[in-house]
Structures are given as C-alpha cells and as structure tokens.
Design brief:
With about 210 residues, the protein is mostly helical. It is built from 9 helices and 4 strands.
Length: about 210
C-alpha cells in the first residue's frame, strides 16, 4: 500500500498492511522560519519514513499574529523566551481585531506547509496544527493561563471578544492551510486549555470555531 492508501484505509476502518505511524516533537532551534521548520520536518520524514506528517509549528506562532515577540532558543530542547506579550489586561483583549491569516507568522506557517508539500509530493498526507482560541488566549497575556482564567471570570465580555477575534482568524487560517496543501487539521488543546474550557462554561463565555 502507498502511504496515502494506508492512512485512508485505516481512517475508514478497513484492513491495512500495517498500522500507519508518525511522530512529532519540537526542535526549538529549527522552528523559527519556514525553511527551518520545513527542513527539520523533511529530515525526520526521510530518517523515519513516516506514513503521514504533522509538522510541529512553534507554539507561540498564533499569538505572534497579535504582537507577541520572543527570542529564539539556541538549544533544540530549550523553549523560546517571550520578550513582549500583546495583552496586559481586559482593555487590550477588548480591542483585539482579526489578523491576516496569510501574513506574518501565520503566513510563514503556510509557506512551510507549501515547502513540505512540494518536497514530499501528493502521496504523504500532511496534518497541520491549529490551536484552540482558548489556548491562544493564554499566550496573549504575561500571566498566561492564570491571568486568562482571572479575566474570563472578571471581564467575560472582553474575554469573549478576544476569543471570537482569534476564532475568526484561525478559521480563515484553517481554510488557508487546506489551500496550501494540508489534508487535515490537528486541533490542539492541552490540560490547561481544558481547565479554561470548564471555567468558560461556568462563567458563560462562549466562542464559535
């Protein structure tokens, strides 16, 4: 079976010659440009011959769309250092506007996707990462998850505006990923995000994705 045949058969619950496999991880040195991310993804793909690819975008790239700045790491196992966050409080969240999903850090992600697709051809499925709006929200503030949780409870209108703004942008970005060659999307959440989602239900905050 080809890689695409194997992956698609597995998704349909049909017999396969072997279970399709992939793996992903951060290399904090190589993920800071389209060329670096593409190159590291292709290196791993060549080394391990994965059945499908889930390139590991840098975690902060979505918040960069609203002004997050950082210093890149020089060690592949050591995360980046944030030097500027976009939102200090509720007023900053309330003033957020949708970002261009094809420009800046998001545009760079699309370029990496196009480079990877061009290199691997059509047989290898590619899944691209899109964060949940709540996950992005924690990156927008210096206080991270704790500040997000506090503002969700104390300033629900401002927080809901920020979530909707992020969701509108990421929805457009998701479509752009498919246009650039992705076969599907990896919708990223984590334990902290799930805690925020529970708090959102309690506080009455909602978001459309």
């Amino acid at each position: 079976m080809t890689k695409r045949e194997r992956v698609m058969a597995a998704l349909r619950g049909e017999p396969v010659d072997r279970v399709p496999i992939t793996f992903w991880l951060h290399n904090f040195v190589t993920e800071n440009s389209a060329e670096g991310l593409a190159g590291e993804t292709l290196r791993l793909a060549k080394t391990f011959d994965w059945d499908f690819l889930k390139p590991q975008s840098r975690a902060q790239c979505f918040a960069e769309a609203w002004g997050l700045e950082y210093t890149a790491s020089r060690d592949r196992a050591v995360p980046f250092t944030v030097t500027r966050v976009p939102a200090a409080g509720a007023s900053d969240l309330a003033s957020l506007e949708p970002a261009d999903p094809r420009a800046g850090a998001l545009g760079e992600q699309l370029e990496a996707l196009r480079l990877i697709r061009a290199a691997v051809g059509t047989d290898t499925p590619i899944i691209w990462t899109v964060f949940s709006p709540l996950m992005v929200a924690a990156y927008l503030m210096k206080g991270g998850r704790e500040q997000a949780l506090s503002l969700m409870r104390s300033e629900p209108a401002a927080f809901e505006h920020a979530l909707e703004t992020v969701a509108v942008t990421l929805r457009a970005f998701a479509h752009a990923c498919l246009d650039a060659g992705a076969d599907g999307l990896f919708y990223a959440t984590n334990v902290a995000t799930r805690s925020l989602m529970s708090a959102a239900v309690v506080s009455g905050v909602s978001v459309t994705v």
